[in-house]
Specification:
Elements (H helix, E strand, L loop, with lengths): L7 H17 L5 H7 L5 H13 L3 E3 L7 E3 L7 H19 L3 H13 L3
Antiparallel strand pairs: 1-2
Helix pairs in contact: 1-3, 2-3, 4-5
């Protein structure tokens, strides 16, 4: 079975989501998509995302803000999501020279979870 071809706008959005996930290890929010792709409203983002879901390019785990992912990625586990979040928080805090106690706690959590 072949997929229905994505429109030019949908292809642009799909590429953006793919690049964002590769860079951040989590999906962009609709508001981030709206801002970074210069859409006029969040509902415009929703229309395009829904279209890509219908065509089989994206899947949405639930109604949470960052639950969209590429259909080709396979299932995302809660554990992978949490590990990615912890890694991102560690990087942010290392760059910002945050409180060492917070950083140490995050590193211990990552180690405990096997990440």
């Amino acid at each position: 079975m072949t997929r229905e071809r994505a429109t030019k706008k949908q292809q642009e959005l799909l590429q953006f989501i793919s690049d964002f996930i590769s860079e951040h290890n989590y999906a962009p929010s609709y508001r981030e998509i709206m801002t970074l792709l210069n859409y006029k409203s969040v509902s415009t983002v929703a229309v395009h995302v829904d279209g890509l879901i219908t065509k089989g390019y994206l899947v949405k785990k639930d109604k949470s803000a960052r639950s969209i992912r590429l259909a080709s990625e396979g299932p995302e586990t809660d554990e992978n999501t949490h590990l990615a979040w912890i890694r991102t928080e560690i990087l942010k805090r290392e760059t910002a020279e945050a409180d060492e106690k917070e950083l140490d706690t995050l590193r211990k959590a990552l180690e405990f979870l096997g990440g």
